[in-house]
Amino acid sequence: MKVVILAGGKGTRIVSVHNEIPKAMIPVAGKPVLEYQVELAKRYGFTEFLLIIGHLGVVIRDYFGDGSKWGVTIDYFIETVPLGTAGALPELKQVLTEDFFVFYGDTIMDIALDQFLAFHQEKQSKASLFLHPNDHPSDSDLVAVDGNKKITHFFSKPHPVDFVGRNLVNAALYILSPEIIEHIPVGEKTDFGKHIFPACLEAGLHLFGYISPEYIKDMGTPDRYEKVCNDVQSGKVARLNRQFQRKAIFLDRDGVINEEVDLLNDPAQLRLIPGAAEAIHCINQSGYLAIIVTNQPVIARNLCNIEELDIIHETLETMLGRENAWVDAIYYCPHHPDSGYPEERKEFKIVCECRKPNPGMILQAAREWNIDLSQSYLIGDRHSDIEAGEKAQLKACFLITQNEDNALKNLVQSVNL
Question: If you count DSSP H runs as helices and E runs as strands, how many of each does the chain have, helices first?
């Protein structure tokens, strides 16, 4: 399986750091960005590379040659005219006859590529995009997915003032079928996120989003470059690979993050509790996952449907994103054990393992995100939250006062994360 690396960028935004070498060759902790990518792919058994080069590409060829020094094979395609992120691929269709990776040459990442590929194959996807939340979704290209992780919409920046959506950012790492190339115009400057993927979606191709908290960040500006260097040297980049267990803070929703409203069933009812977004931002920066686990009997009570609850959660993510915070996942229980209401949805009126005080949502999150529960915490405002955390054998569970300003913030700051 080939790895195509887009390494022709001029790096105009980072010219103050290095202007005499291609962006993909800028050193991070003494090694070119591109070398980290070659070593990552080789670690997972992918040893065939095709580098698309342009500006100062001779520097790349002189450094890597045929790749034998790294135990890989490297071929090159010279882009004489810049064609954007996608425009060169029609020229390579004769050699890209099987599914292939696409890396952007200005990103530092440490991804479990085997798990990403397994997802792509399981979904029988024509294009799988690596997605993750970040602390600036308002100026990022966002993606919407359904419950099966199938992509439904692309939202390129800039977004309208009233935009509401999940904080799922296109991180510029793909696995593509050769069929995608058929949708790329020959000889035109095109971009995957803005032009090609939306066109493929409109043509009926099945595209999927692989959501992961692993490290992937472009170093295209001086500020980002400095941060990436620090993250490599501190070990953060390698530590966030999915092969390693992560720690998490599980959060109840109503009364902890947003104000408690009896059976909240409309996004207009959402109000963030003062200090909650700041607390979640602290969790994000600590390296812990921030995961919501919430009972939502409004579904069983038929006060709103699944789609309407999704909009409520999209609104919550948007509100947090505006304050530079994100949650990595939201798990909810739609069930309620008591029946007898005339408007209820009987299929959800059951005794289940996910409704707190049962630990089902926590245990599901642990499986899906490789979480070390013994080093994780839960914060809630009801005894049922605490009981669920104790049943899951979390390290500690904290009960806070419902709807209290800065309660979550004060607690998070007091815990040695």
Answer: 11, 18
